[in-house]
Design goal:
The protein is an alpha/beta fold. It has a single domain, classed as 3-Layer(aba) Sandwich (Rossmann fold), CATH 3.40.50.300. It contains nine helices and ten strands. Helix 7 links the parallel strand 7 and strand 8. Helix 5 crosses helix 6 and helix 6 runs parallel beside helix 7. The longest helix is centred in the C-terminal third of the chain and has 16 residues. The protein starts with 6 loop residues before the first helix and ends in an 18-residue tail after the last helix. The structure holds adenosine-5'-triphosphate (ATP) and magnesium ion (MG). The site of magnesium ion has 2 residues, from helix 2.
Length: 280
């Protein structure tokens, strides 16, 4: 029994399975509703000024904007790493504003995967351990964490390197490990902030191809970038400028259907969410 067990979410009607099965009613995976973010200071910085965005299951969305436009601020709100100054953020229908920090941490651990430009892998741990750590705060027992980590490494083509350390890998391989870590536990949504920003063009392209393959397999993914060419590859493109969304090519109607057909049955390795007493 740990602090990670949050009764609010355990009772949540949308909860169920270890990710995918949370909802079959068309509730958006992620909704940002008229959100603003002002950083205090002299003068305060209005990084986001009333942003609304709704992302459905199975979508692949590119959010593009120049430096300082508010991309990372928006990602932090979408990822529940920060709270809006005003407005609302809902993840799988759950309003972050109504939750305490512990519930939000549990929501984040079970439903959101992150990929960052700098990979953020532990150099002292094996690839398998790095990926398994993606489930650490979801209260999943260690044996299951390792099993799912191996499956996630398989998905990104690095299963045979499971015992290697990140320092023995190329940048592109490191980012694949970070993607595996984001995917473990089948989160409702994966948020990637400049995932190719530290990679040369060819390697970056192979990471984008991997992201596209994951999307084709049903994952819901947001890629944040300042690079217009990357955004152009995405089925849906959202443009942000000076803290406002200035263009949105609109949601991809086929994504939801694809996500549903892709995930009809239980996902290999995914276990039903344990009741509180079963957590280690
Ligand atoms: N913690 C903070 N405190 C004060 N101002 C901040 C903070 N974080 C961001 N800002 C400001 O908010 C605005 C938006 O920043 P943000 O990091 O969201 O932009 P970005 O689009 O991600 O830029 P980049 O492409 O350079 O990463 C900028 O003016 C920035 O200086
Ligand atoms: Mg940024």
């Amino acid at each position: 029994m740990t602090e990670m067990v949050r009764p609010t979410l355990a009772r949540d009607p949308l909860a169920g399975g270890n990710g995918y099965a949370y909802d079959d009613t068309g509730t958006p995976v992620l909704e940002v509703d008229n959100a603003s973010k002002t950083y205090p200071g002299e003068p305060p910085v209005e990084a986001l000024r009333g942003v609304s965005l709704s992302i459905g299951q199975g979508e692949l969305v590119g959010i593009v904007g120049p430096s300082g436009s508010g991309k990372t601020s928006l990602l932090q709100l979408m990822g529940t790493l920060d709270r809006p100054t005003s407005g609302h953020v809902r993840i799988t229908g759950l309003d972050v504003a109504t939750m305490d920090d512990g519930d939000v941490a549990y929501l984040r651990a079970t439903r959101i995967g992150f990929v960052f430009q700098q990979f953020f892998l532990s150099e002292h741990s094996s690839l398998l351990e790095n990926v398994a750590d993606g489930l650490l705060y979801a209260g999943v027992p260690v044996a299951q964490r390792r099993q799912e980590a191996l499956e996630a490494l398989e998905l990104v083509g690095l299963a045979e390197r499971q015992h290697a350390r990140p320092t023995q890998l190329s940048g592109g391989q490191r980012q694949r490990v970070a993607i595996a870590r984001a995917l473990i536990g089948q989160p409702a949504i994966v948020l990637a902030d400049e995932p190719t920003g530290n990679l040369d063009q060819a390697t970056g392209k192979s990471i984008l191809v991997l992201i596209e393959q994951l999307h084709q397999a049903g994952s819901t993914i947001v890629v944040i970038t300042h690079d217009r060419a990357i955004a152009e590859r995405m089925p849906r493109r959202v443009e942000i400028l000076d803290g406002l969304i200035v263009a949105d090519s609109g949601s991809d109607a086929s994504a939801d259907r694809r996500a549903r057909t892709a995930f009809q049955g239980p996902v290999p390795g995914a276990q039903p969410e344990p009741s509180p007493g079963e957590y280690p």
